[in-house]
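Let's do one together. I've listed all components of the complex below, 592 residues spread over two lines.
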Amino acid sequence: MKLTLSSSPHQRVQRDTPQVMRLVIYAMLPGVAAQCYFFGWGIIIQALIAVIAALVFEGVVLWMRKKPIERTLTDYSAVLTALLLAVSLPPTLPWWMTVIGIFFAVVVAKQLYGGLGFNLFNPAMIGYVVLLISFPVAMTSWLPPTGISTLPMSFFDAISIIFTGFTTSGYDVTQLQTIADGVTTATPLDTLKTNLTQGVTYSETLEYPILNGGLFASAGAGWSWISLAYLLGGLVLIKTRVIQWHIPASMMLSVVIFASILHMSDADYYASPMFHLLNGALIFGAFFIATDPVSASTTPKGRVVFGAAIGFWIVIIRTFGSYPDAVAFAVIIMNMAVPLIDYYTRPRTYGRGTKPESKAES
Amino acid sequence: MTTDYKDLSVQGLWKNNPALVQLLGLCPLLAVTSTFINGLGLGLATTLVLIGSNVTVSLIRNIVRNEIRIPIFVMIIAAFVTIVQLLMNAYTFDLYLTLGIFIPLIVTNCAIIGRAEAYASKNAPKDAAFDGLMMGLGFSAVLVLLGGMREILGSGTLFAGADRLFGSIASNWTITLFETSQPFLLAILPPGAFLGMGLLIAIKNAIDAKQAAKATQPVEKATRIRITAE
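Okay, and this is what the predicted structure of the assembly comes out as:
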C-alpha cells in the first residue's frame, strides 16, 4: 500500500464545472422530450436559437472583456442557461424575442455582474422576466397541448411560425389558440386566473378541456406529464449528487402547505395543492432553477429557508398577483435575500459557540 | 478673479454633470423620460428654474445670514418653480398634463439646491447664471438622451408629441423608425429607465477611462524618446 503525503485539501472535487453542467443538461432531456411530445417541435427550435445566441453573446462579451473565450464557452454554462430559458418559453415565440431574452440572461444578468460565479440572479429567470414584462401577450400564448389541439403542427409549421409568425398554412398564434374549441385556451394556470375573474369557480374550471385530460383530476392535460418528466430528471440529479435535496423538498413542501391553507379556507376560489404542484413551472423550477449553485443559498439550513420562501411567494403571487405563473419572480425575489439568509444560517464552527446551558454547567 | 467660462461649461456638461456624475434629481429623470419630448420639456423647465434661482441666490448672497440660508434658497426655488409651472400651464398645456406632478417636484430636485449652495451663494450673478445654464443643459442632455433611447426602443418613434412643446407646427415631426404590434415594454416601464441610466453612466465612465489612458501614453513615449536621444 502506497501512502502519499500531500497538503490540504484532501477531499478532492470529483467533477469539474463542465461535467456538472452537462449532467444537468442530460437530466433535462426527459422533460424536454415530454414538452416536445405535447407541444410540438417548437421547443427544439427555440432551444437551438437560444443556444446559438447564448454562445455568440458570451463569446462577444468575453472578447470585449479580454477573457479566455474557449475555456468559458466550453464549460456549458451558457448552453445550460440557454436551455433553461428555452424550455420556459412558449414554443411559438418569435425568434427575435428569444434572442432578446438570451441577451438579458447572458450579457446583463451574467457577464455584466462578472461572469459565471458572480451573478446575483439566476440568468435564465432574468431573461424570462424581461421577456414576460416586455411582451406579456406573446409570452403567455401557449398553444393547447397535443390531444386537445385539432391542428397538429409539423416541424416546418413550427419553424415557419417562429421566424415569420405564420404556419405554412397561414394561421397565426391567436388563430391556432382559438381553433381548438372556439375559446382561447392558454395554460392551466392562465385559464384558472381568467376564469376566477369572470366568476367561474375553481371546481368548474376543472371541467375545462385544458384541465380534463390530465393524469390527475386537477392537473392540466399534458402539463402534468411534463412536470413528472422533470421530476424524474430532478431525482436523477439528487441521486448523482449534482444538487442537494434541501431546496426542492422545502420548496414543494411549502407550496403544498400554503396552497392547502388557502384551499381549505375556500375550495371554490383557491386551487388545490396538487394543482399548484403539477401545473406551471413548479417542479421544473424546484429542481432546475432554484438549485442554481451560484445564485441559491449555500448553507444547508439556508437552503431550506430559501426553498420554503420561494414556495411561499409562488403561492402568493400565483393566487393574488396579475401574472399566471410565479416561479421566476419568486426565485428572483429570494436571490436578493440570499446574502441575508446565508449570514443568519452560517454553520457553527466545530468547537465554537457552545450552548448557553452547557456553559452554565461548566 | 476672472471666471473661466470654458471650465464652467465642461463642468456642467461633462465632468460634473448633475445626472451622470452627481446623480442628482434622479426621480424626475427616471420617471418622465419615456419619450424624447417629455425629457426635453422637463429639461427646459429645470434649466429655467436653475438659472433663475442661481441668479437670485447670487444677488442676495451678501444679505442673507448663513444660519437661515437653506430655507431662503428653498423659497426662492419654489417661487421659480411656480413661475415655470404657471407658464407651462398657460402655453404648453398638454405637456403640463403629461409631466404632471414632476413639474412641482422640481422644487425637490437636489441638483438645483446643490448649485445654489455650492456655486451661486459664493459667486457673482453673471457667473452664477452661466453655471445654472450649463448645469441645466447637462441635465437636459441626459434627459433627452435617455428619453430618445427609451422612445426608440420602446415604441419605435422619435419626437412623438412634439406639438405638445412646440405648438401645432410640430405636429408632423414624429419620426417612425419601425412599426410593431408588440412594443418592447421594458424600455418604457421604470426598469428600462434604470437600465438605460446605468448604461449611460457606464458609457461616460468608459469614455473618461479611455481619455485618461490616452492622456498618459504620449508622456511615456516622450520620455523614452528623450532617453534614447541622450
